[in-house]
Every structure is written in C-alpha cells, then in structure tokens.
What we know:
478 residues, Outer membrane efflux proteins (OEP), disordered C terminus
Amino acid sequence: MRGLVLVALSMLLISCAMGPDYTRPDVPKPETFRMAEHEAEEKSIANLPWWELLQDEELQKLIRIALEENKDLKRAAATIEEYEAKLLIARMDFAPQLSQNVVTPMFGRRGGFLFPGFPTPFNYYIQGNLAWELDIWGRIRRSNEAARGDLLAKEENRRAVVLELVSGVAQAYFDLLQFDMQLDIARRTLQAWDESVRIARARLRQGIIAKLDADQFEAERANAAARAAELERQMVQKENQLSVLLGRNPDSIPRGRKLTEQAMPPQVPAGLPSALLQRRPDIIQAEQELAAATARIGMAKADRFPKLSITGILGIANPKLSQLFSPGGDFGVVGPGLAGPLLNAQILGFQQKAVEAQAKQAVAQYEQTIIVAFKEVEDALVAVKTARDQRDAQAEQVASLRSALHLANLRYKGGLANYLDVLIAQRNLFDAELALTGTHRLHLVSIVQLYKALGGGWPPTDATGTQPAEPAPASGKG
C-alpha cells in the first residue's frame, strides 16, 4: 500500500497539466491620453481615496451608508463567499475521497448467506470506501485555476460595484443640489414675474398698455411656475433614487454644501493609460474570466483521456451483530482503476471546441473592455475641460443679462421702453441661470466620472487611502 502511494505521488510530480497556460493578451494601448492636460508622469487623480476627492461632509456620510447598506454590494459580497466555497471544493479534489457505509438488517431478513471476504445486505457490516483520482493530465489543477479565476473575477466585480456606488451616490447628490439651486432660481424668477404681472395689470387698468402686453407677462409667469413644479418633481424623484442606493426606503436626503461651494481639485491629471490595466476592476475582472476560460480548455482536454484512480474498500462484516468484531470478519481491497471515454469520446471533443470558443469570447470581451475604458477616460477628460470653459463663459453671460434686466426694468418703469425689453431680458436671464447651474453640476459630475473611469474609489476600509495590491491573474505551469 505504501509503495502504491509513493508511485502515485511520483506520477503526479512528473505529470503536466494539459491545455494552454494563461498569458495576458498583448492589447495595443496609447502612451498618453489624448485629452490629458498634464504630463503623463504626474500622479493620477485615481490614486486619491474618494473621501479626499469628495469633501462634502454630508456626501461622505451618504457614501459610507451606501457602502454598508446597499443591496447590490451585499449581493456581490455574498457571491464572493459562494465562489470561495467553490474554490475549496475544487481543492479537495486533490485529496483522497473517503466515505463509509453502515448496514444493520434490523427489520428482519431471510437467510444468512455469508460470502467470505465480501459483505452482503444480509450482514451487519461497516465499510469504508476510498477513491483518489491521480491528476495525471492536470484536470484537477486546471479546475483549481478556473475556480481561482472565477473567485478573483467576483472579487473585482465587488470592487466594480463599490466604484459604481461611490460615483453613483456622488452624481445623484450633485443632481439633487442642482435641482435645489434651479428650484430656488425658478421661485425667485416667479416672484419677479409676480411683480411684473402686478405692474402690467395696473397699467392695463390705467389704459397705458394693451391686454396683449399683460397676457404676455401672465404667460411668462405661468412658464416659471410650471418649471418650478417640474423641478420639485425631479428633486423628489432624485431623492428616491438616492435612497435606493443607500439601501433605504424613499425618504428626504440631507444636504451639505451648495453646488457652487463643492471643493474639487483644480488639476485632474489622468496618469498613464497602462495603469488602467492594473486599476480598473472591470478590466481585471474580464482578465480573470479569461484566465478561468483558458484553464477550462485544459480541463476539457484532460476529460478526453483516461482517468487513473486508486480505489479501495475496508471494513468488517458478520451475520450476527454480537460477532461483528470477531476475528475473520474483516475484508478489504485496494488497487488502481482506469476509466476512459469510449462511446462519448466524440461528445467530449465537441465539448472541448465549445470551451475553446468560450475562451475566444473571453478574449474579445477583455479587449472590448479595455477599449471602452480608454473611451470613457477620454470622454471624461474632454468633459472636464470643456465644462470648466463653458461654466466660465456662462457666468459672464449671466452677469451681463442681470445688468441688462436691471436696465430694462428701470427703462420700463420710467416709460422709456416697452414690455418686450423686460420680457426678453427676464426670459433670457432665467434660462441662462438654469443653464449655468447645470454646467456647475456637469463640471462636478465630469470629475467624478473621470475618477470612476480611471478606476478610483477605494472603500473606507483602506485607512491609508492608498491603492491596495492587485491579485495576480490565475495561471498554470505545464
């Protein structure tokens, strides 16, 4: 028995795992980001922990609540536990499998046959069973590589959920602050139109203006009232959306700093494009899925070859329970077993082709994920740059329109201008102020989107605020 075990271990040591070993595909990537405004060697904004990027205290509280209570994140964490258990199951295939049978014919029997060396249902017996597959072709090793790749992919999926959650809460919060400011502008404009309508009605009664002029003021006031109602609806719906991200029933959301008071870094360096391959969780997840698919090719190939196993039974048996442990009742056998495909060999060949096709799909998915990542970074970079320029230009526009409205009101009250001057000036200012608020929000959201696209957003368990070490991709040696 000892010699057989030594032979089995020797065969395992000299055996080689079938199928290709995983290597990272060589994907062409740019040396620098096209829309980057800073040198490539500068430290990327993604190296900042989210609590240093998003400095609004209320927003930080909301993100921490979401990281604790969000249901999608809890599901992702539970999925990791599932695949950890599956990896342990795969590792147990290396060890001998032992089981036992205990038979007690206590409900009666007919006859008392006893065949020397073998138990029967007519006996009382205790039997242990041994099954140990020798991993000659590396099927079990490839199975472990695939299980490890699946586990690492699920861990990266959880990181992706964290990243999506941090950016999602921040964007929804900025949307909420935008609606607050726009609602304030709409209500302030509505009060201005109330004053204009009051003056217009008084002048209509005095016969100074026509009813057409008064109706125009009434229409503009109704437009402002409608926009205010629309903004109230959008604000409540955004609070409901944010509540879902927090893992709560719909409720009001506390606010911190105003939209225009949010602190954001003046510079947003993107860093090197190659860093995306080590930082973005969706890219790492796609790579680990590719590693698992590559390992399954080896599993499919190994299934087409005979499986060598060591099997055996050992136990004691006797027709009489009182003599179960008497001498001569023990039995046992151990030896090698060989099982291989015969009529199903062609099916296993098709199975290998299917697994190889799945690996090709994983390669395409990995390459597509990288391309989309570069695209998202470039989109975010140009959005940050243009949103900043757009905000500055719209701020000048709002200042000019406020001056124009002030002059138009003075001229209208003094009888030097007609109602159209005031109406147009008030309408233009209203639209410009709403647009400026939207651009403020766009600038903040663009920075958050860039942070997300670069793979930032480390969870608060990382107290140092530094990037945690990335897991190595699953690989095997032949």
